[in-house]
Amino acid sequence: MNQNKITVPREQWDAMFAPSSCLVLDTTVSEDGFVNAAPHATAIRVCHDPVSFAVTVSAYSHTAANLKATGEWVVNVVPFDETMLGKVRVAGLPFKHEVNELDKAGLTPIPSLEVKPPRIAECKAHFECKVDWIHEWENRLMAVGRVVAVSIDEDCYDPAGKIRWDALRPAIFCGFPYDGNFVPVYEPVHVKIPYDGPADWRTDIPYLAPPGEDGVPVVTAGRGRA
Ligand SMILES: Cc1cc2nc3c(=O)[nH]c(=O)nc-3n(C[C@H](O)[C@H](O)[C@H](O)COP(=O)(O)O)c2cc1C
């Protein structure tokens, strides 16, 4: 593995995380300085501007404690590769606080650009986040944070500001009822909208963009973004 990481310019950050939810390894650092890594299926890009992520975890996890204590994490995008997914499963085992899951799984930390938790070299794209808010309910914790730096493997990066899907090879975790099963999500199929009539019935809802000068919401091309 000898991948050059490209530092992505801010205006391209949003397009670098695709699809809008996929399997990641989140790295955090505890208050007493221990590095932690945990796989999460619940990484979702929740805002385009500022580009922001949500992650939902067990309230009893080390990730939850670290997010509350230090307010930083790195979203590392995991490629669909059997060896790598095996390492992800190792990182998901319930190791003690002092144990570094990256060592256990045979993954390589590299320093981040803006935050203390490391990037993971074997992952393809990295979104460094600072917590905006945290909500706890039942036995869960949800954190939303804004992105402060993005980097990506050179071969996964199209300088036009898009990812190269077949190089990045994002994956989705099927969930615990499906044991160790994952779905590859890197064969996008373009689908035309089979409708060419008016679509102005929702212009009263400012869900795409803030209102323009006349107070009417600006509906952008593409009828919304994921
Ligand atoms: C593929 C995979 C996906 C997972 N996704 C989540 C998730 O979205 N949320 C969660 O709370 N735990 C998830 N887990 C379980 C945690 O990774 C696991 O409980 C881990 O030990 C928590 O680590 P931590 O205590 O170091 O944060 C997942 C595990 C695997 C293997």
Automatic annotation (TrEMBL):
GO terms, molecular function: oxidoreductase activity
Cofactors: FMN
Protein name, UniProt field: Flavin reductase family protein
Cell membrane as UniProt keyword: no
Gene3D superfamilies: Electron Transport, Fmn-binding Protein, Chain A
Residues forming coiled coils: none
Family: Belongs to the flavoredoxin family.
Natural source organism: Amycolatopsis pigmentata
InterPro entries cross-referenced by the UniProt entry: Flavin_Rdtase-like_dom, Split_barrel_FMN-bd
